[in-house]
């Protein structure tokens, strides 16, 4: 036990064991009772000034206000031990003990407090017994407090307003006279200010009682019966006859919150509790703190006038909060399938079952009620909760145990001995073979070698009223199985089912509900489903999806029924989220070593949008699934809320779990903290929702749903995807509908109605600057305006070019408009492919040139990818020469160094010589002119050029060095400089295409060694398809669009054997002479793109060679590719386009 006092450091109370009770006196002394009773002083420093061992542990103890007496009781004591203080010095403290006998077990003890803090204390002791009586004790003055007399007693069962029905033992407490008087004064003041609900007669009656300065005894039972008595003349020095008279007897509605405090976990007859009450002047309420000694504290608030008014029918007393917890830090929380019950466990094996309930009249207020403690012991391996918390199964070191948790006291129902080799990794509840058979359950465990055991559990009947035959409970081994895994399993876990309704089809296939997730030491992750065959007494297992993540020695994992898996690396600092169904990495975040990930928990919204809670030592981050955005490369997951528990407790987080409906339970220290669905609208990704009020808390599910689900048809992402899918007619239809709804006031008489003109675009964008569209953020509305401008620009050229050209033109125009807001300095390989496969490249080239005002330099050429998609060799060389001229003239000095690489790639040394003759300002003019005058077909001068090239490399003049390598006719070295020193793949390809053509050996080598390798590393199928097409392997270009990246082994695949054999199942990117190492980012979700299916459908029948390549694709693979693309559209919010793919 640790005491924390203002201005003093924490101090451990020596000699105090667990199971203690403590109370304070007015002299800053603390009484602590457990196996012994101790008195501590805290004035100068905390020190133990008296201690006495007890024959049996104390359940409760109380010290009088003046520290003159201490009263203590044990669990089943009928005698109160009364300790009378003999000395008050701290050097030697002595007490004398006496006993107060009672007719039944004593439940609570309480000392009367004086009306004023500085008033002489007249000690009066109140005790309550299991016989529902309150006893009032006072010392006999003639014997100097050595003997005590019974001043009176109250029968709390005298008034029962609940039709005479027998109720459990009530909660009884004393409201001191000073608190009762203050509460009545506050009620009177409120009644004067406000019309109020309290009857005047009731208030006058309470004023009369308060004027007598009497203590008040209040009793509340589980039926809601409340009785109040005034205790007149109860003080020790009062010579008048002690009197008890009734104040009120009322029936309280909505009283379920008191049930756990009244019943407890032990026999309700001997349920110990302590109650304190005081009047809080800040809230003007009577605060009632009920401490159930089984570990629960309830805090209630009420107006004393409303509480005792017999005519008031609405809620008289309100539950403020419930405090409860363990005696040691929580290490594990296990929930049942529906999320209505959890079991929390500590390291020493203390297990408590909690149930979720919704308080009456407050539908949004959910309470986690402590149901009972399960005495399972300390050797628990795994736990599973059955039938909404009615039953709990523990997998221990030597047995499997079934507990009945329907009642206040958990009862052992069945036990089955356990004999296995290895450590059980999990305890999983399997799907019911027959849904209507609720009494039978099957649970399974798996060992690291893949072998496992299934037990059959038969629980007592509980749905039929009046039938609770515990003798029917049974627990026995059902069967043994082997998963047949090739690798050793590191861990197996049940999947998190929160928010997803289970669907049991009865079939064992990939569509069946997942029950478990496993992972190996090498990073192989599997989702598993199972089917119980009762007839043959066996369980069949099937891996529904799997992927090789490449993560070695995973430290933590969690899977959801949506086939999402969250994995944490061996240092517990890096989190990755995977879609195991599609083998894609959706999220990667390195939290650094300072933030150790300790827990992962999944839930989802009612429409199956995933939410992940990532637990750290003192805070929890909530990550929300986001719509895919392939155009802006937006994240698939984003943090939307952070729960910091340091504001509540200094204890670290042990574990957490989701309840039903999105409530998160966090185990911190010995406490459970419940966080509801309200989140701060100003945090992280939520702040991007400009069209909502982010200054007020928002609902978690509403926020997540706003980031997911179908987009409106006017959303810029939907319009972009319509463009990629070739749905230009949808935009024309939208325009026609607009024309019908609103007469054209902005068109000219001669204008073509079928064309979306720039005038229409300008008018529409002007409206967008004044009117905010629903369901769009401010940034999205700006993107829509850009899209409208781009569509109008492209529409004017649409009749003279094909769809691929229109796609390129649209997204290149968008790229130009957003260039200042994006990090990408060049177009993606998707847009390059559209231009590459367009038959309108001359129009596209002219468009790109005009966008650059006819001054295309290499920077702009690389940005547009023009030398990657131009097919005509003459046009390629002509445009390259334009770039060379613009590089020469880009500065006022007109430096020939800037254009040397380009003219030498064109083999136009003569033009370069002429430019050097004009560069009189350049100090290198003379030497360069003299060098260029030589014949570089001569090996001698080639060696000189090489020498100069290496000298320039040493001076880090890399582009000029590459030019001298070309002068020496060493194209391969020039390309290496572009690749390694300049890190410019496009420049390397461009100069090789211009210098030797597309079929040249260096060009082919770059594509084989560099481009394909890069495509494999990045998982870039757009780049791979372009590379294969450039290599003349058009069949492979088609297959590259549909086949995912595969791992490549040099002993299995090589360039030569692939060309000869072309095995059916070989990954596309095996067309490499040497193996490449795949980056984890090659698995990222952005490597998928539903637009791939558009290009695939175009190319598959374009030539005989592409048709041959498409014919090698398994029809099942092709169908799965289409289905996967439809799922991507759905995740993007473009579900209408996904449906269109199925036609």
UniProtKB/TrEMBL annotation:
Xref: InterPro entries: DmX-like/RAVE_component, Haem_d1_sf, Rav1p_C, WD40/YVTN_repeat-like_dom_sf, WD40_repeat_dom_sf, WD40_rpt
Superkingdom of the source species: Eukaryota
Residue span, RAVE complex protein Rav1 C-terminal domain: 523-731, 741-1141
Cellular-component GO terms for this entry: RAVE complex
GO biological process: vacuolar acidification
The protein, known as: RAVE complex protein Rav1 C-terminal domain-containing protein
Source taxonomy: Eukaryota, Fungi, Dikarya, Ascomycota, Pezizomycotina
């Amino acid at each position: 036990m640790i005491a924390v006092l203002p201005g003093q450091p924490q101090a451990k109370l020596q000699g105090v064991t667990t199971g203690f009770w403590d109370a304070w006196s007015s002299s800053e002394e603390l009484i602590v009772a457990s196996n012994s009773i101790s008195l501590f002083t805290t004035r100068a420093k905390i020190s133990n000034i008296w201690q006495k061992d007890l024959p049996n542990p104390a359940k409760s103890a109380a010290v009088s206000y003046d520290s003159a007496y201490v009263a203590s009781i044990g669990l089943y004591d009928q005698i109160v031990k009364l300790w009378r203080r003999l000395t008050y010095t701290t050097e030697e403290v002595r007490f004398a003990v006496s006993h107060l006998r009672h007719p039944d077990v004593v439940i609570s003890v309480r000392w009367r407090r004086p009306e004023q803090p500085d008033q002489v204390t007249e000690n009066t002791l109140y005790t309550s017994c299991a016989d529902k009586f309150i006893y009032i004790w006072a010392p006999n003055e003639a014997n100097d407090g050595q003997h005590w007399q019974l001043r009176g007693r109250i029968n709390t069962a005298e008034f029962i307003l609940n039709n005479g029905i027998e109720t459990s033992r009530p909660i009884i407490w004393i409201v001191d006279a000073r608190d009762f008087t203050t509460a009545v004064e506050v009620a009177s003041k409120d009644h004067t200010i406000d019309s109020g609900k309290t009857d005047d007669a009731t208030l006058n009656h309470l004023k009369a009682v308060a004027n007598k300065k009497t203590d008040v005894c209040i009793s509340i039972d589980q039926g809601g019966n409340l009785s109040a008595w005034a205790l007149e003349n109860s003080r020790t020095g009062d010579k008048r006859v002690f009197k008890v008279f009734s104040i009120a007897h009322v029936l309280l509605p909505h009283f379920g919150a008191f049930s756990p405090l009244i019943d407890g976990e032990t026999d309700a007859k001997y349920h110990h509790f302590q109650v304190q009450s005081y009047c809080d002047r800040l809230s003007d309420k009577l605060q009632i703190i009920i401490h159930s000694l089984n570990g629960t504290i309830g805090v209630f608030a009420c107006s004393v006038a409303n509480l005792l008014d017999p005519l008031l029918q609405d809620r008289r007393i309100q539950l403020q909060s419930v405090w409860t917890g363990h005696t040691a830090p929580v290490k594990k929380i296990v929930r049942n399938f529906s999320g209505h019950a959890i079991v929390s466990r500590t390291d020493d094996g203390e297990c408590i079952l909690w149930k979720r309930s919704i308080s009456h009249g407050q539908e949004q207020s959910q309470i986690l009620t402590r149901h009972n403690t399960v005495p399972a012991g300390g050797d628990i391996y795994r736990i599973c909760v059955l039938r909404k918390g009615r039953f709990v199964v523990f997998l221990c070191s030597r047995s499997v145990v079934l507990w009945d948790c329907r009642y206040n006291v958990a009862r052992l129902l069945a036990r089955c001995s356990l004999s296995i080799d290895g450590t059980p990794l999990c305890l999983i509840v399997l799907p019911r073979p027959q849904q209507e058979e609720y009494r039978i359950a099957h649970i399974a465990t798996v060992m690291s070698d893949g072998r496992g055991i299934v037990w059959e559990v038969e629980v007592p009947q509980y749905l039929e009223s009046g039938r609770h035959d515990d003798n029917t409970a049974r627990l026995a081994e059902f069967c043994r199985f082997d998963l047949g895994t090739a690798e050793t399993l590191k861990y197996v876990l049940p999947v998190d089912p929160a928010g997803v309704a289970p669907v049991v089809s009865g079939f064992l296939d990939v569509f069946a509900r997942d029950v478990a997730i496993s992972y190996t030491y090498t990073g192989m992750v599997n989702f598993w489903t199972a089917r119980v065959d009762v007839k043959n007494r066996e369980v069949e297992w099937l891996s529904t999806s799997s992927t090789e993540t490449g993560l070695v020695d995973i430290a933590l994992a969690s899977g959801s029924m949506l086939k999402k898996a969250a994995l944490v690396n061996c240092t517990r600092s890096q989190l990755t989220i995977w879609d195991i169904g599609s083998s894609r990495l959706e999220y990667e975040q390195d939290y650094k070593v300072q933030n150790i990930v300790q827990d992962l928990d999944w839930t989802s919204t009612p429409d199956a949008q995933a939410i992940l809670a990532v637990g750290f030592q003192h805070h929890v981050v909530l990550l929300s699934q986001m719509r895919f955005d392939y155009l802006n490369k937006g994240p698939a997951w984003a943090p939307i809320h952070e729960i910091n528990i340091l504001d509540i407790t200094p204890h670290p987080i042990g574990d957490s779990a989701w309840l039903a409906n999105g409530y998160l339970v966090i185990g911190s220290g010995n406490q459970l903290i419940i966080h509801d669905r309200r989140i701060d609208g100003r945090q992280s990704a939520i702040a991007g929702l400009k069209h909502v009020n982010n200054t007020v808390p928002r609902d978690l599910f509403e926020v997540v749903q706003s980031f997911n689900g179908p987009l409106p048809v006017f959303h810029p992402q939907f319009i972009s995807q319509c463009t990629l899918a070739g749905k230009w007619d949808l935009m024309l239809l939208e325009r026609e509908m607009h024309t019908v709804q609103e007469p054209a006031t902005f068109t000219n008489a001669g204008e073509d109605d079928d064309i979306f003109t720039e005038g229409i675009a300008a008018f529409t964008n002007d409206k967008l600057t004044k009117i905010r569209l629903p369901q769009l953020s401010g940034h999205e509305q700006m993107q829509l305006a850009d899209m409208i401008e781009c569509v109008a620009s492209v529409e004017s050229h649409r009749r003279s070019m094909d769809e691929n050209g229109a796609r390129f033109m649209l997204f290149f125009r968008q790229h130009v408009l957003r260039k200042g807001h994006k990090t990408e300095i060049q177009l993606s390989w998707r847009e390059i492919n559209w231009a590459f496969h367009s038959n309108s490249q001359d129009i596209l080239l002219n468009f790109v040139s005009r966008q650059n005002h006819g001054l295309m330099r290499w920077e702009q050429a690389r940005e547009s990818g023009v030398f990657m998609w131009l097919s005509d060799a003459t046009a390629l060389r002509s445009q390259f020469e334009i770039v060379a001229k613009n590089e020469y003239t880009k500065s006022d000095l007109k430096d020939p160094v800037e254009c040397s690489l380009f003219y030498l790639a064109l083999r136009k040394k003569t033009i370069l010589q002429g430019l050097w003759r004009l560069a009189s300002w350049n100090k290198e003019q003379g030497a360069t002119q003299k060098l260029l005058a030589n014949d570089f077909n001569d090996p001698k001068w080639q060696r000189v050029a090489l020498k100069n090239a290496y000298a320039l490399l040493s001076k880090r003049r890399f582009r000029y060095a590459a030019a001298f390598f070309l002068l020496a006719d060493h194209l391969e070295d020039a390309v290496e400089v572009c690749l390694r020193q300049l890190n410019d793949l496009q420049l390397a390809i461009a100069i090789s295409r211009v210098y030797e053509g597309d079929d040249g050996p260096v060009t082919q080598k770059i594509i084989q060694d560099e481009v394909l390798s890069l495509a494999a590393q990045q998982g870039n199928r757009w780049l791979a398809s372009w590379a294969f097409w450039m290599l003349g392997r058009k069949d492979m270009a088609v297959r590259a669009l549909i086949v995912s990246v595969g791992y490549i082994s040099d002993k299995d695949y090589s360039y030569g054997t692939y060309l000869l054999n072309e095995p059916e199942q070989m990954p596309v990117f095996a067309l490499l002479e040497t193996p490449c190492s795949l980056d984890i980012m090659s698995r990222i979700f952005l490597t998928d793109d539903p637009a791939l299916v558009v290009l695939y459908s175009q190319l598959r029948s374009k030539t005989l060679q592409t048709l041959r390549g498409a014919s090698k694709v398994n029809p099942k693979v092709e169908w799965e590719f289409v289905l996967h693309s439809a799922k991507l559209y759905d995740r993007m919010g473009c579900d209408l386009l996904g449906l269109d793919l199925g036609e």
